[in-house]
Amino acid sequence: MPTLAFRFPGGRYHATPWGRHVNEGAVEWPPSPWRLLRALISAGYTRLQWQNDLPDQAALLIEQLAACVPAYRLPLTSSAHTRHYMPVRSGRKEKKALIFDTFLLINPDDTLLVHYPCRLDKNQRLLLEQLLVHLDYLGRSESWVGASLCKEEIEPDDTWCRPEGNLLPGGDQVSLLIPVSAKEYLKWRADALTHAVNESEEQRGKKLTKAQRKRIEDIYPADLAACLCSDTADLQKRGWSQPPGSRKILYSRPSGVQERRPVIHLGGFRPAENVTCALLALSGDNISGSMRPLFNRCLPQAEAIHMALLSRLDNNQPCPSLKGRDASTGRPLTGHGHIHHIPLDLDNDHRIDHYLLYAPMGFDQNARQAIQSVRQTYSRKIPRIIVSCCGMGSLDDVRRQVRSRSGMSLQVLGTSKIWESLTPFIAPLHMKKAGRKNDLRDQISGALAMRSLPEPAGITALKRPPGFFRFVRNRKDRDKQPPGTYPWKLRVVFNEPVTGPVVLGYGSHFGLGLFIPIHD
């Protein structure tokens, strides 16, 4: 009997129950069987390249799972919410709508188990395992998920959340949406169609034409798989207050699986302990939200994000990872352990769509709260950019999530012996002739040593593309200007593989001197 395992590496779960408004603050927990089956089908269409109707093997799997009622082993959670104003545009006018975003906080190391009391053959288990591996999120897209199929046989006990009539001591009841069996739905559909056609013919006083009968049949999906594949907006447009092929059932949820404590601010957010990076998504402030900053403006945009982060801190609030200063003495930190703003162009349109915030020393609670609370950046001569935090974690978390969502690896976090400049390298010191102190090789070697990277085996200055001269290469603060802003494009070769990110030189904390791996 299959048992599904779900982990939430982002530490949070967003899902609004059917029939509830997002501003009601309700979270569907545990995830309903209806939601789970729709997520599996979605993974098949988006990642396994299913076309049109479900493949026969997939239809059999879905019918098997829909015919039984699963049980849940729930991890400990606590509820939290944020509230913010979203811009609502009407022509050139803009209004502000207050949005409550309610979610559950979950330890990324804890696991949600879902046990289905049914038997699957070898091919069905293999397909189910493939679908689970390709699940990116469960609920809303902010709910990053890592799913798998348990290999060992698991038998639910009294501590599991199950659809039993008697309420467990100290527990409560929760209503979940579950699918009916495929046979039940076909019988119900035939009866409902007959009733609808007869009622329509009585009102008209004559038999329906084929076209009129077809319009009535289109209201009722052909089978259970079609019900699960139906878009929610289409169902509501056709007048369904609840998805056809579904029913609600009461589950007994054990006590102690959800803490009821008020969370006033994001200080209650507890991501993984080893948080060294955060991923920010950028969107423009125009009507379509598509006008993002050009990639050659990575430095001023990074400075704008950095100022927005610092504005979320009190003047006396210690935060070495963001301020770059020792919490006790106030002196600048050495070793480049504080925050780096690494620009990303994931859709290859030469515009920045994400920033990877990376701090080798790790983000403390104050830094995490500041990153979570930033909503926009605005600076003189820089358009306003809407910012949202996609998630936090380690470099491995980012690599895994980007690969699972896009099917591609993140270049700047790759591994190779050869690295080339993606953004210009700006020498931090006066450049001397080759063979003298502070020549090009000397400055590169010193920058690598400060970041605990190995001595390079070779450094080559490559022909600069014309776009390198279009990069903004001066920071806003005149006291922090380099001796020169000559844009170098370099190739650095190591004797052993090096794992990114590799950022060197002046402005390396703000997007300059960024390297990408080259594979021969």
Outline the fold blueprint:
Layout: E1 3-7, E2 12-13, H1 33-47, H2 56-66, E3 71-73, E4 77-90, E5 93-106, E6 112-115, H3 122-133, E7 146-149, E8 172-179, H4 182-204, H5 210-219, H6 224-229, H7 232-237, E9 246-253, E10 258-259, E11 277-284, H8 298-311, H9 320-323, E12 340-344, E13 354-358, H10 365-373, E14 376-379, E15 382-393, H11 395-406, E16 415-421, H12 440-450, E17 458-462, E18 489-499, E19 502-503, E20 514-518
Parallel strand pairs: 4-10
Antiparallel strand pairs: 1-6, 1-7, 2-5, 3-6, 4-5, 8-9, 11-13, 11-15, 12-13, 14-15, 16-18, 16-20, 17-18, 19-20
Q: What would you note in describing this structure?
A:
This protein has 520 residues and is an alpha+beta fold. The protein folds into four domains: 3-180 and 246-259, Alpha-Beta Plaits; 183-237, no CATH class; 271-407, Alpha-Beta Plaits, CATH 3.30.70; 414-520, Immunoglobulin-like. It is 26% helix and 25% strand. It contains twelve helices and 20 strands. It has helices spanning 33-47, 56-66, 122-133, 182-204, 210-219, 224-229, 232-237, 298-311, 320-323, 365-373, 395-406, 440-450, and strands at residues 3-7, 12-13, 71-73, 77-90, 93-106, 112-115, 146-149, 172-179, 246-253, 258-259, 277-284, 340-344, 354-358, 376-379, 382-393, 415-421, 458-462, 489-499, 502-503, 514-518. Strands 12-13-11-15-14 form a five-stranded antiparallel beta sheet. It is elongated. It starts with a strand and ends with a strand. Mean pLDDT is 82; it is low at 259-272.
